[in-house]
Amino acid sequence: MGSTLADSDAVTVPDPLATYRTDLDRDGYAIVRDAFDADTAAALHADVERLERELGIGPGTNGFEGRSTHRVYNLLAHGELYRQIPVHPVVLPLMHHLLGDGPLVSSLSSITIGPGEVAQPIHADDQVLPMPKPHRAITANSMWAITDFTEANGATRIIPGTHLADDSPVYGQHYDSICAEMPAGSILVWHGSLWHGGGANGTERRRMGIAMNYCAGWIRQQENQQLGLPLELVRTFDPTLQELCGFGVYRGLVGHIDRRTPADVLLGDDRGHRMLWDRS
């Protein structure tokens, strides 16, 4: 009879995401450094500037979106370059940790804070949702640093641990916060209940980031992916990205069309899905 490896002799494989998960659970945020390379940052930077020009994007007109901040929404509809963002190999598993199985793309947009912008009011991304706090994450977001994020140029400001608070911040009220500085190529990930806000830009250069926001599979998405993305475009997405955009069925039940997945009905892609009821 062959020998077996005793439990005490088992090799422990390091978990590369363990530190990030610990940070998220304890502090409500984590920073993934060297998450994407300089060529990717340069390509995203150039393309966001192209979209701003071609779409005629002007600065925001309110205190939340910013009056010196340019935002391009619905980026998945604007080119293949953006398909890599929702499926990032580190960020997506962290979203599964926070949101459980079947998370969705809630919104994907660029946020470019221009010179002279003032700090955004501190807020929680889930505070419009009518649920008592604290609660497990139902939204969770990430910010890709396309340029360096510094205190001087408007890096995201955060209040660690507030994802465990029993309330949301009062909009417009001052709160002491810290600056989530990070070099270009980093990604800030945070629990949707974390109190945070964009910083003020006191420099002469623009601070560009891409906000990749997710939600639990049973929550309505911030940007309506099913209506905002042409079906002929979604057909070219890989299956993981299609499901992230809401063309699957959550836990075999939520989001079906006559017992079929949206991918089957709308995209003509039958993957042999079985409803929850059929599994008993």
Automatic annotation (TrEMBL):
One of its GO terms (molecular function) is metal ion binding. InterPro entries: Phytyl_CoA_dOase-like. SUPFAM superfamilies: Clavaminate synthase-like (SSF51197). Gene3D superfamilies: q2cbj1_9rhob like domain. It holds the Pfam family PhyH. PANTHER family: ECTOINE DIOXYGENASE, PHYTANOYL-COA DIOXYGENASE DOMAIN CONTAINING 1. This is Unannotated protein. It comes from freshwater metagenome. The lineage of its organism: unclassified sequences, metagenomes, ecological metagenomes.
